[in-house]
Amino acid sequence: MQLLKGQSRWINIYYGEKDAWGSFVTESYDNGYLILGKHGSNAVHYYWLIKTDINGDIIWEKAFGNDDSYITLVNMSVNNNGGLYVCGGER
After folding, report:
1. Furthest-apart CA pair in the chain: how many Å?
2. Distance CA 37, CA 45 (A)
3. Who wins on pLDDT, 11 or 61?
């Protein structure tokens, strides 16, 4: 007898209507994901952060930026207590 392990896959598109793309993904404390990305044509003005559950369904989301600023978000990290840190800057 041989045991085979499988992996379930899911495909989700987030902000597809806004020509968005992801730039950083990390697994969260609850086996969901944190996804950081930009809005395509407004990439210098707007970033977004999505928290998903283990199935890829959005739990919450946050937008960063406005028409008057040029921001860059380059990394994120989660500490052992579940605190989220997003690193970047504005010019």
Report:
1. 64
2. 12
3. 61
Q: How is 20-68 classified by DSSP, letter by letter?
A: EEEEEEEE-TTS-EEEEEEESTTTTT-EEEEEE-TTS-EEEEEEE--TT
- How many Cα atoms sit within 13 Å of 27 on the Cβ side? 5
Q: Which two tokens stand for residue 70?
A: 């040029």
CA dist 77 and 27 (Å) reads 10
Model confidence pLDDT, tens digit, residues 33-87: 998 888 766 556 788 899 999 988 999 999 888 778 778 888 888 888 878 888 8
Q: Determine the pLDDT at residue 89.
A: 81
**CA–CA gap between residue 79 and residue 29 (Å, rounded):** 9
